[in-house]
């Protein structure tokens, strides 16, 4: 009678170990999916934030340029088509273009970095889930083997 109890206990233990491993694997998949979704949202946020910064820079440039033109026209009485004024305005435009390029590069870098880190995190969650599943499977096999051995020893 004791051998049946030992066998039943090892089957229950093995089933629980397998179930826990399977649950951990599913949890790893779910966490990876959540991480992927979070990463996509964060990358989109960074993209939108970059667009807002570029828009603010362009708005500031446009307002400053208009102010500079008005000031130069009123103060000096010179036409804005004067070559020196055109050159000064072109320099400011060039500076803004450079700043916009730098901003775009930085935003792209931040997005790439965020996506790469998110992928690493998602892969880590999946790997942890697979490892837990394999561990649960090994524990289940160990419990069943132990139970079979105990059953034989108690029976014989």
Describe this structure in words.
- By secondary structure, this protein is mainly α.
- It has two helices and no strands.
Strand content of the residues, in percent?
Answer: under 5%
Structural class call reads mainly alpha
Give the number of DSSP strands: 0
Alpha carbon gyration radius: 34 Å
Which stretches are low in confidence, meaning pLDDT under 50 for 5 or more residues running?
none
Order of helices and strands: HH
Number of helices: 2
Distance separating the two termini: 12 Å
| Shape assignment | rod-shaped
Largest sheet: none
Mean pLDDT: 89
**How much helix is in the residues?**
over 70%
Task: Walk me through the topology.
Elements: H1 2-76, H2 83-155
Helix pairs in contact: 1-2
């Amino acid at each position: 009678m004791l051998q049946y109890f030992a066998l039943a206990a090892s089957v229950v233990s093995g089933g629980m170990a397998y179930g826990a491993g399977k649950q951990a694997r599913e949890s790893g998949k779910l966490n990876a999916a959540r991480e992927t979704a979070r990463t996509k949202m964060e990358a989109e946020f960074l993209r939108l934030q970059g667009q807002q910064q570029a828009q603010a820079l362009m708005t500031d440039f446009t307002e400053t340029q208009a102010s500079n033109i008005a000031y130069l026209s009123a103060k000096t009485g010179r036409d804005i088509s004067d070559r020196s004024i055109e050159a000064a305005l072109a320099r400011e435009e060039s500076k803004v273009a450079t700043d916009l390029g730098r901003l775009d590069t930085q935003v792209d870098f931040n997005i790439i970095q965020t996506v790469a880190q998110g992928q690493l995190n998602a892969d880590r969650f999946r790997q942890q889930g697979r490892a837990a599943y394999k561990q649960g499977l090994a524990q289940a096999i160990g419990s069943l083997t132990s139970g079979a051995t105990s059953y034989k020893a108690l029976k014989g």
